[in-house]
């Protein structure tokens, strides 16, 4: 039943499916590991129990997310040997060592200190335990460094030569690792991970503030998350702009697809906000656009000429419809995050950060937005690289294993079933953990340091304290 399907398309679908599941877990664990380090550092500095309580709450969630990220990553590596063996053979001399460095320098570092962070606080002392937490956080960043260096090299390959077997041979590892797009991609992805975590933490805090449960813990995490979003969201927009300019220089066809520029614009290109790409007629139907704004953004000149997809051979053009919409989803959510950060600053300034129910509802709704934006960004990046696996040098159609479509389709269906069962259950468990913010964390609310946190105790707790004093 699968014989009429294209094996290359099926192999791409399988990798896209597995990487979509995988990327959300590292994006969350990178930011959450750093958040745990901040929480423990604040506890050691201030001795306020709320930071330790939040650390214990989030470390369990981190452990589950970390485990699911490891499992989903192993499956992705398996596909290099099954569906993409030609790519592995040709690019292996470059890709293999980079992936090996990731395992040796990052994963072992994370795994080595993870047990100490999760179970060792009463055994190794506060100083060594904090060091272990820092090493886990540092390990996640190093892991991201190697993975992004690998992906960036596939986007903007540098520092290599070709041998007589058609293999990519590294000649300068500095150029391989620090290829032209790596700095921009690394900054953009790490900021995305921090935003993703801040949105989840803020959403959980908002949920419990709306339910009026554990107000000190919920208020503290909500305040920290909103502060992070207010700082990082504008930085991410700036980093994304710089990344776009770098992409225009090295992968112009990707930017043309993102912008929906089927035709060249010699006198300034419009910024198409919305529309429906029509690949048959080579235009964007029902376009809502701002004249010459694209030239202003990309070239900083209203009248700067911008080339279109009409300058690229059709067999070398990426799929416009997918990139056009994924890019707009990513950018739209980015500006929604900026709006959330600005709103939180306004509420903080007016002293209503913990009482503004509409802000809390907005933060709760934005909780999953970071994951969606990360997925949309990776779709834009990876689909925009097509029709190449190594941009400009190795076509996707030439990278696939000699495996029939039915075999690829069967493994794809198996992945779909297993992934939704396993990772669906893991995600459901994480959501249950987030819902169970313990009430006993606020047992000390009436002791005095409530005002320093900027929030008031829950009404039922205040009533209990008042009744006790009245009876006394």
From TrEMBL:
The keyword Transport appears for this protein: yes
Transmembrane segments: 20-45, 57-78, 98-120, 127-149, 186-210, 222-239, 322-346, 358-381, 401-431
Species in which this protein is naturally found: Rhizobium oryzicola
Presence of keyword Electron transport: yes
Membrane topology category: Multi-pass membrane protein
Family label: Belongs to the cytochrome ubiquinol oxidase subunit 1 family.
UniProt keyword annotations, A-Z: Cell membrane, Electron transport, Heme, Iron, Membrane, Metal-binding, Transmembrane, Transmembrane helix, Transport
Record's subcellular location: Cell inner membrane; Cell membrane
Protein name: Cytochrome ubiquinol oxidase subunit I
UniProt cross-references to PANTHER family, sorted A to Z: CYTOCHROME BD MENAQUINOL OXIDASE SUBUNIT I-RELATED, CYTOCHROME D UBIQUINOL OXIDASE
A Pfam family the protein falls into: Cyt_bd_oxida_I
